[in-house]
Amino acid sequence: MFGGLPHGADEDTPVFVISVAAQLSGLHAQTLRSYDRHGLVSPGRTSGGGRRYSMRDIALLREVQRLSQEDGVNLAGIKRIIELENQVDALRARIAELTEELTAAYVTAEQTAAAVHASYRKDLVPLRQQTALVVWKPKPRR
């Protein structure tokens, strides 16, 4: 294990059983079950239905506890905060995607414009346009 996680696992890999997650988060296992029932933290499940928590879940458990204990937010409020934070994260990811698409579109447009300019005939000489004023004075009739 490296940094508390098995080799190849990242912060989203569900690896901790409920007793270890409770110890890491500083909460009672029953509290973790309650948070799961309320939809605040949704751990992974084994084929037998056992909960498996990731490091991200542990961090979220700590944040739920902090909001509850230090800030006095009720569980419904905490759930809404989590939903809004997830929505903000999703929107930031979408902005990043759109920014990449826009950058690619600019590059394509610049390449297309360069190709058009490169296709101009080089043997043509621009004609300088001039304007002249001609005044016609007819001769009087006799």
Automatic annotation (TrEMBL):
The chain positions of domain HTH merR-type read: 15-84
Keywords assigned by UniProt? Coiled coil, DNA-binding, Stress response
Q: Coiled-coil intervals in this record? A: 81-108
**Pfam families tied to this protein:** MerR_1
Keyword DNA-binding assigned: yes
Listed transmembrane segments = none
- Give the matching Gene3D superfamilies: 1.10.1660.10
DNA-binding as a keyword?
A: yes
PANTHER family given in the database record: HTH-TYPE TRANSCRIPTIONAL REGULATOR YFMP, REDOX-CYCLING DRUG-SENSING TRANSCRIPTIONAL ACTIVATOR SOXR
Q: What is this protein called?
A: Heat shock protein transcriptional repressor HspR
Q: Which organism is it from?
A: Amycolatopsis speibonae
